């Protein structure tokens, strides 16, 4: 088995003794991080010191002579001596003034990241800090200079001063103020969409304040001209205090009659009459105080003033209380909102079938004629019109055997001679024959119409995939968690990419970023690039790929799949400790405080791996790709890792028996030949589809014909934009380092410890020498072990000289010819 690192020979002696890893090790990172942290603290000290000692050092610093920085005469007053004085002078005087403090602050963050104390996206912080520093430097120079005019340095530094002078020469002082204001708001809006609300409130404070006080007129008065409100006599003055937790529902009000509510929010005339249900309208989340005014002339108003949130009683929350409150798995992003349906496009006549009686009658006549010409008489014929296909359901006359019709299937299809005719003889569960005929005017099934359906909105599925509509116009949905892996095939241009996008979109509409992560593999580099924007929210990747989490490169795919194997093993270990059978049980235990967090338990998000152009990958990386995929497919279901793999070329070389056996869910778009259809569906049919999203879905029994929902790139961009405006994770989920990596275990030059050999080492050596076959999959099968462990065993065998190095997907060369030679070698190893 080809293994990435182990077959690489060290280039030089330094590398052989492990020098190569010196800049790549945790220890080095930690120490470098510590250095940065201390450097930043030193910088802060000297900068603070500069505030008081800068004046004294100024003349020395202004005319610094060569070599003076060595400071042999201890002339500098700065607490950090000469270096400190120069550093502070350069940062604060020459460059950015007071905002220079952001430089050591950023270095502290970088240090903490290197020491693995915090996980942050350093580039984002770098650009953010730079922007804030430059902006503040100019702002300070503009607005603080008049106040701190006599100070030793300009509050915005020479940089700020220079920018202010130049910009004011061009746009004048008001222009500069506008620029500064705009850049600040633009930056804050980029950081959080809430800025828009704050600005709106700031610009319309009256509306904001009045919306806090809600005026409603309830039915205590007879009808007036302006308001069509039923009221009853109520002369008594009463001022009632609501019970603390009470909900104010006026007595004698029939429950089902909604109370009309006049919204007087704008203090003007009555502008609208609402008839919503009373409790919903008069009761904000907070409790309400009700005042019934009895002034004879005044309208009987119920004035509700929203109270402040109730204060905590200051008592300590005891541990039982904490344990009885389930953990919210959506924390800390509980305010994240799933995308809304208005982001998706609507079409005229959206997915509703266009019933064209002329067309139906013509088809009917042709079908009857053709069947009669083959001697099949018909008792009844029924047409069901779908968005793109009409199903003609034929009940044959008494005595006609269905098997006869089945044998005539091809002839009938040929005689009807329309593209996309499929004959189902018989329709499962019925004694009828189905003939599917494409409509002249196919309708687009929009994603909106599918996601807006009750079926999707109310589904309890764990990973619902809303794929489209069936011939009978029903929304077609499947649960990826149950399938549990899906194989998608279809010739080019038949709707595969749209289908994958429909799958991803339906998951994005149902899942929170804490509940689901995608691993997207896109060898074509253009299919999934549109999802790059939401990678922090919804992607999982290896740490080295966190800038480019959508994988386009074959070697990265192998590493990522091996990493997923590692994650799968780790999740199984956690499940075992937790005594849970699957991810659902595990997460339920986690949420209900039944797991000991010190044992490494954490909420498990589902992981959906979507691989486009799987054929290309298999052709380039062969078994290296196939084995981890097969392993994940065999085992990962219980731990919430699911795969969707797509290919244009459904040949047996690509969809091998191993893959096929482990991917029970099949989604076939139109393919070019019957053989391809048989490869993907184990029957013909996919070659008779009409393309443009027409598909057959198979999961077990009979395939279902579905018109795939259409989702276009601008719609996906809208969804991504919406997601990005929500509070959410700041970086992709990190996958573990793959266990078969040369740096992380496995045996490689320089770190062999014979006592650490795999317990199967000797048995595996005998098996290989006896069979003279250096194959990892043979080891896997023989000892029923995983791919990673078998790979490590092979590396150990290579290291002691039993097999040669890996040669791509070919078996390794066996270097020991017979058992005697092997026994001698093993004895030597034992005695070492
Ligand atoms: N469900 C659908 N409804 C309507 N039209 C569709 C649908 N799916 C695909 N199409 C049409 O077919 C075209 C090609 O679809 P798509 O890009 O998904 O094909 P593909 O199989 O991924 O092709 P390739 O393998 O070359 O990328 C789309 O641009 C669109 O016009």
Automatic annotation (TrEMBL):
It is a multi-pass membrane protein. PROSITE patterns: FTSK. Pfam families: FtsK_4TM (PF13491), FtsK_alpha (PF17854), FtsK_gamma (PF09397), FtsK_SpoIIIE (PF01580). The lineage of its organism: Bacteria, Pseudomonadati, Bacteroidota, Bacteroidia, Bacteroidales. It is found in: Cell membrane. Residues 472-678 form the FtsK domain. Its main location: membrane. The keyword Nucleotide-binding applies. The chain crosses the membrane at residues 30-51, 91-110, 122-144. ATP binds at residues 490-497. Belongs to the FtsK/SpoIIIE/SftA family. Keywords: ATP-binding, Cell cycle, Cell division, Cell membrane, Chromosome partition, DNA-binding, Membrane, Nucleotide-binding, Transmembrane, Transmembrane helix. This is DNA translocase FtsK. The keyword Metal-binding does not apply. InterPro entries: FtsK/SpoIIIE/SftA (IPR050206), FtsK_4TM (IPR025199), FtsK_alpha (IPR041027), FtsK_dom (IPR002543), Ftsk_gamma (IPR018541), P-loop_NTPase (IPR027417), WH-like_DNA-bd_sf (IPR036388), WH_DNA-bd_sf (IPR036390).
């Amino acid at each position: 088995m080809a293994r990435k690192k182990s077959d690489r020979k060290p280039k030089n002696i330094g590398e052989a003794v492990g020098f190569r890893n010196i800049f790549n090790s945790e220890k080095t990172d930690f120490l470098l991080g510590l250095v940065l942290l201390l450097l930043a603290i030193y910088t802060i000290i000297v900068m603070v010191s500069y505030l008081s000692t800068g004046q004294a050092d100024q003349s020395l610093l202004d005319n610094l002579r060569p070599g003076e920085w060595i400071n042999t005469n201890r002339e500098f007053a700065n607490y950090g001596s000469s270096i400190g004085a120069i550093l502070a002078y350069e940062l604060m005087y020459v460059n950015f003034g007071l905002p220079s403090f952001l430089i050591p602050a950023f270095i502290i963050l970088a240090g903490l990241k290197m020491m693995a104390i915090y996980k942050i996206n350093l580039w984002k912080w770098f650009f953010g800090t730079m922007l804030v520093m430059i902006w503040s430097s100019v702002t300070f120079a503009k607005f603080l200079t008049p106040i701190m005019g006599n100070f030793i340095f300009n509050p915005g530094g020479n940089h700020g001063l220079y920018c202010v002078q130049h910009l004011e020469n061009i746009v004048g002082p008001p222009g500069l103020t506008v620029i500064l204001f705009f850049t600040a708001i633009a930056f804050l809006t980029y950081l959080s969409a809430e800025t828009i609300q704050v600005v709106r409130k700031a610009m319309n404070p009256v509306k904001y304040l009045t919306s806090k006080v809600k005026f409603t007129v309830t039915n205590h008065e007879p009808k007036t001209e302006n308001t069509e409100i039923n009221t009853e006599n109520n002369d008594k003055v009463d001022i009632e205090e609501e019970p603390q937790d009470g909900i104010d529902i006026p007595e004698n009000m029939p429950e089902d009659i909604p109370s009309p509510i006049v919204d007087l929010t704008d203090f003007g005339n009555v502008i609208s009459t609402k008839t919503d249900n009373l409790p919903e309208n008069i009761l904000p989340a907070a409790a309400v105080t009700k005042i019934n005014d009895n002034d004879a002339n005044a309208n009987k108003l119920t004035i509700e003033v929203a109270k402040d949130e109730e204060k905590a009683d200051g008592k300590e929350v005891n541990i039982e209380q904490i344990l009885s409150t389930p953990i919210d798995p959506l924390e800390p992003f509980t305010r994240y909102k799933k995308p809304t349906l208005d982001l998706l496009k609507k079409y005229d006549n959206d997915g509703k079938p266009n019933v064209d009686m002329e067309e139906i009658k013509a088809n009917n006549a042709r079908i009857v004629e053709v069947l009669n010409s083959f001697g099949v008489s018909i008792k009844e014929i029924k047409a069901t019109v779908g968005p793109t296909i009409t199903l003609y359901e034929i009940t044959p006359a008494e005595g006609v055997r269905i098997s006869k019709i089945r044998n005539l299937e091809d002839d009938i299809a040929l005689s009807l001679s329309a593209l996309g005719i499929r004959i189902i003889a018989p329709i499962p569960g019925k004694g009828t024959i189905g003939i599917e005929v494409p409509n002249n005017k196919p309708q687009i099934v929009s994603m909106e119409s599918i996601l807006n359906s009750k079926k999707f909105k109310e589904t309890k599925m764990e990973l619902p995939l809303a794929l489209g509509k069936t011939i009978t116009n029903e929304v077609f949905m499947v649960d990826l968690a149950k399938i549990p892996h899906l194989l998608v095939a279809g010739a080019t241009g038949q709707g595969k990419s749209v289908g994958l996008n429909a799958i991803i979109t339906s998951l994005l509409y149902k899942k929170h970023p804490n509940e689901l992560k995608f691993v997207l593999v896109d060898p074509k580099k253009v299919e999934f690039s549109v999802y790059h924007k939401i990678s922090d929210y919804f992607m999982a990747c290896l740490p080295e790929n966190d800038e480019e989490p959508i994988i386009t490169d074959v070697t990265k795919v192998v590493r990522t799949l091996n990493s997923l194997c590692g994650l799968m093993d780790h999740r199984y270990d956690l499940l075992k400790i937790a005594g849970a059978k699957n991810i659902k049980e595990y997460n339920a235990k986690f949420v209900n405080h039944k797991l000991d967090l010190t044992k490494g338990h954490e909420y498990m998000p589902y992981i959906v791996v979507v691989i486009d152009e799987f054929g290309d990958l298999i052709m380039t990386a062969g078994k290296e790709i196939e084995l981890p995929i097969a392993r994940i497919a065999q085992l990962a279901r219980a731990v919430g890792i699911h795969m969707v793999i797509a290919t244009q070329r459904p040949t047996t070389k690509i969809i091998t028996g191993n893959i096929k056996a482990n991917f029970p869910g099949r989604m076939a778009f139109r393919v070019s030949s019957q053989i391809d259809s048989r490869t993907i569906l184990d029957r013909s049919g996919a070659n008779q589809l009409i393309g443009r999203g027409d598909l057959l879905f198979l999961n077990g029994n009979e395939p279902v014909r579905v018109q795939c929902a259409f989702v276009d790139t601008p719609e996906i961009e809208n969804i991504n934009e919406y997601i990005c405006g929500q509070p959410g994770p700041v970086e992709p989920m990190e996958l573990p380092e793959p266990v078969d990596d040369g740096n992380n275990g496995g045996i490689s030059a320089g770190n062999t410890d014979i006592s650490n050999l795999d317990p199967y080492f000797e048995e595996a050596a005998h098996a290989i020498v006896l069979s003279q076959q250096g194959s990892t999959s043979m080891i896997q099968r023989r000892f029923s072990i995983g791919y990673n462990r078998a790979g490590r065993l092979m590396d150990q065998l290579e290291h002691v000289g039993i097999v040669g190095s890996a040669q791509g997907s070919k078996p390794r060369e066996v270097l020991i010819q017979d058992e005697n030679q092997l026994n001698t070698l093993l004895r030597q190893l034992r005695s070492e």
